[in-house]
């Protein structure tokens, strides 16, 4: 028997640092990935998909957002989808799960598990699902504790599914809310405990696993397994499950820290480094660059052209923190002519920069902008 384990879809999530076009693409992909999960289940021969909480980002999504994931799952009538609430979409009165039931929006192949009690998962394999259900965003009690004594038939394959933070894995402070005992699988005789809340793949032990979000949603999770789902194969109720991770995410999120630029070669190398992430699909890259260093006038113009303009237009999102400073001296003023108001202004700004003090950084930025604008005018003049 096989299942697919996934979590933290967070349908309806917003990203404040991207423009409208990128936001629309990111939100659409959180829905499109459901289809890739369904295709993965078919290809692997898994009849069941467990979604370990946070199907939705908010407790009050619009009606359209509420129904969209249901319709994506409806397309895979041969797959049973098993959903539990998470901390973002807890089973509160008049919350998303009540609305779905009231609107009759749940397809026959989608099972909402809204009570903490065993339910038969697959009769042919004597497999039983033990869901832990959050009825509020945060709880201080371990909702998986009931699994220890939850009755199932003799020889049953017991699979737990929950949303929260394991206690005893170095994150006790985080686990104050929605805690889960690290040894719950052993205590409750579980063949597998499918967890949600951690957005990257994390194998706590042989039987306790976070699947992570199937479409990466933040800088830094990619290296921890975000953008994947887990296929779990069972050989029996006591045999260790066999796990395999499968890439499902379309977008790649990368953060480049402490990038120091001092020459045109550095600028070209940075552009090449970012594009190499997905050379044939740069539009699937979200990059966050923390940039510093000092560049001459011409190299600063090159940086603005290659990085801030060309690379930004190629990627799904380019987020810049910091910027290279202008390394300008008296000799660079000749670029602005031998006299005139523009040169005089630049000379005054350069003098203020060299003098230091509270206004030096403002003067540096103004001088940098003056040189860049002058260069644009010079290139545009026939």
From TrEMBL:
It comes from the Bacteria. Pfam families: Metallophos (PF00149). Keywords: Exonuclease, Hydrolase, Nuclease. Transmembrane segments: none annotated. CDD domains: MPP_Mre11_N. GO terms for molecular function: exonuclease activity. Gene3D superfamilies: 3.60.21.10. Residues 1-110 form the Calcineurin-like phosphoesterase domain. InterPro entries: Calcineurin-like_PHP (IPR004843), DNA_Repair-Maintenance_Comp (IPR050535), Metallo-depent_PP-like (IPR029052), Mre11_N (IPR041796), UCP033093_metalloPase (IPR014577). This is DNA repair exonuclease SbcCD nuclease subunit. It comes from Acetobacter lovaniensis.
């Amino acid at each position: 028997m096989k299942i697919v384990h996934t979590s933290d879809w967070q349908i309806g999530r917003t990203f404040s640092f991207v423009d409208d076009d990128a936001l629309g693409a990111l939100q659409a992909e959180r829905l499109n990935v459901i289809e890739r999960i369904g295709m993965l289940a078919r290809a692997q021969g898994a009849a069941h998909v467990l979604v370990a909480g946070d199907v939705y980002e908010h407790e009050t999504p619009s009606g359209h957002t509420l129904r969209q994931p249901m319709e994506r799952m409806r397309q895979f009538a041969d797959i049973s989808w098993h959903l539990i609430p998470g901390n973002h979409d807890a089973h509160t009165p008049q919350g998303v799960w009540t609305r779905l039931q009231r609107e009759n929006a749940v397809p026959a192949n989608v099972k909402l598990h809204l009570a903490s009690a065993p339910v038969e998962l697959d009769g042919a394999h004597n497999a039983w699902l033990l869901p832990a259900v959050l009825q509020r965003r945060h709880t201080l009690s371990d909702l998986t504790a009931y699994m220890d004594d939850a009755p199932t038939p003799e020889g049953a394959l017991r699979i737990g599914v929950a949303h929260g933070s394991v206690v005893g894995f170095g994150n006790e402070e985080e686990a104050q809310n929605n805690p889960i005992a690290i040894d719950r699988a052993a205590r409750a005789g579980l063949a597998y405990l499918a967890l949600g809340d951690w957005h990257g793949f994390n194998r706590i032990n042989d039987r306790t696993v976070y699947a992570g979000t199937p479409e990466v949603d933040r800088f830094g999770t990619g290296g921890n397994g975000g953008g994947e789902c887990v296929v779990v194969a069972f050989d029996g109720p006591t045999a260790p499950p066999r796990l395999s991770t499968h890439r499902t995410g379309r977008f790649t999120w990368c953060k480049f820290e402490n990038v120091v630029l001092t020459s045109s070669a550095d600028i070209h190398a940075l552009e090449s480094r970012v594009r190499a992430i997905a050379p044939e699909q740069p539009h699937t890259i979200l990059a966050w660059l923390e940039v510093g260093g000092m560049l001459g006038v011409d190299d600063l113009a090159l940086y603005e052209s290659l990085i801030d303009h060309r690379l930004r237009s190629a990627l799904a999102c380019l987020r810049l923190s910091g910027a290279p400073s202008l390394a300008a001296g008296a000799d660079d003023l000749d670029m602005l002519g031998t006299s005139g108001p523009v040169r005089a202004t630049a000379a005054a700004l350069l003098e203020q920069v060299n003098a230091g003090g509270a206004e030096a950084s403002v003067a540096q930025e103004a001088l940098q902008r003056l040189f860049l604008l002058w260069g644009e005018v010079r290139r545009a003049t026939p």
